[in-house]
Amino acid sequence: MDMNQYLEVFIEESKEHLQNVNDQLMLFEKNTNDLSYVNEIFRSAHTLKGMSATMGFDDLAQLTHKMENVLDAVRNHQLDAHTEIVDVLFESVDALEIMVQSISEGGDGQLDVKLLVQKLQRIVAEEPVAQSAASFIEYDELVQTLLSQTADQGVNAFEITVQLESTCLLKAARAYMVFDVLEQAGDVIKSAPTVQDIEQEKFESSFIVILVTNESQEKLQASIMEVSEVESVKIAVVPVKKETEMEESVSQEVAAAIQEVTVSASSKLSVEEKKQPSINKTIRVNIDRLDSLMNLFEELVIDRGRLEQISKELNNSELDETVERMSRISGDLQTIILNMRMVPVETVFNRFPRMVRQLSKDLGKQIELQIVGADTELDRTVIDEIGDPLVHLLRNAVDHGIEMPQARLTKGKNETGMIRLKAYHSGNHVFIDLEDDGAGINREKVLQKALNRGIIDEKTAETLTDKQVYELIFASGFSTAEQISDVSGRGVGLDVVKNTIESLGGSVTIDSSEGYGSRFSIQLPLTLSIISALLVQMSEERYALPLSSIIETAIVQPKDIMHVHGQKVIDFRGAIIPLIDLKKLFNVPNSVQGNYYSVVIVKKGEKTAGLIVDSFIGQQEIVLKSLGHYLPAVFAISGATILGDGQVALIIDCNALIK
User: Rounded distance, CA 272 to CA 268, Å?
Assistant: First the structure.
């Protein structure tokens, strides 16, 4: 059988399972007593092993198999989970991600995993078996079915490990008394060893029971401990799904991932909606197909603009009506297509908890990362670009922002620092805020570094506000780090952050309070493919200005224009802002100044400027097209668009015009 046809499914499914393992490991590390996380990790690892073996990726299959052994021992109380075990599991996940990435890039997915395999084998071999080697209990298909049926009735399911005292002489009798307590509380689904072996004392001094009951965990614990010669009782909640929501078995899951088509339909029945089950249908679509669909629709938008212009020129009522209807329908279609391309920022955010965990361990700090609004959606083209800037900001917050635990205690703070990553919609923009409760920005230190590096002079330094001082850290090569480290302090990073975000049509601002923390706020457009723009005329040429950069338009009389150091400026609502003559900037031919100035007021973060044009044409939805390799890095031009009459209009990059 040719497996290449299933490769794409394998890659996507593997990434989802690895992300789940990452997430569940992070949660388990915070609460090692909750074995439900381990069960979830085990399922994903088991599925990944089966898929890898079927596809012929032996290194992947071998490593996940060894992970399974460790996870199985932990969930069956044969290993006590500790930091070293979790660290090795995280290392294994990193190796698995490298292999899957290699496969997705056309590689063979091979990696030398001998050292990791040895670490995992050593854990299982050398770790003392908890409470005299209790047998582990197998959750076979029959047990899963019984548990799912009881879940429909709202009954609890527990895995109970009973440890008898080592001096106990009548083990079978004591076990019988424990079973008597359990059977009064509910129904025993399965035991390990079997009931027959327990009756014949074919066990060491512990046994495991799966019990379904209405009793609480605390009451069960107390009742069993009342039995003589019972040394300890461990009770873990068994995570089960209702029969109506029950997942397919692992073997079916593997087969579906490898052999089924990429369309899946799932039916979910809630308690409130049992009479009218709702059906969710999803389909996995290759992103290249969405890109092709978007390109075709962009051509449709251009033709729509052409039809609208022809309709106005001909002034035909029937044509007007038809074009109006087509515009309305294509507008709805545009909304649908853009929504199809929207991706939750979770796809970027979900790698950060692991990163912060590792960085905090490397630096000897205690840091908690809170993520809010991970379901906020952005266009895929924007999502692809914001990962690296956010990584730089997070590393900066971990290294420069959060203090060492002892320093935080000295300041009266909690020794665990807090970093909060929040995403939310506002109008046609998405905001991403990164906030920490660390040391904040030292104003004087930043000023001194900027002066030493010649970024500003003494005279300018005296006039800067706090916010303007904070923005100096975005200067190229700026760093306040005393020592270079692997985390930050190399003089690169934050200038890249600012440049990348501004190239996306966004902006980044800083707010800080020394001793209390800092907040970086990023503003991004929802999409980059089709944007709303103001068309302006300059002589015989037309240009487009993105509405996201525009504050308002104004008509300015020549008498209202002032000159400061040879620069034209105007008083705009109490603030002096510079004027930029676009006709001179772009060398527009046959340019003649009229009796007044048409000015577009634009913004870049906290800064504003006025752009002088000949006249305003109006607002229009335009398709952003790249200038390609023939015209790279044209100053203040971010691309071009084709207008309804076939003319090309250049799109002005307002951010590049404001310094």
Answer: 11
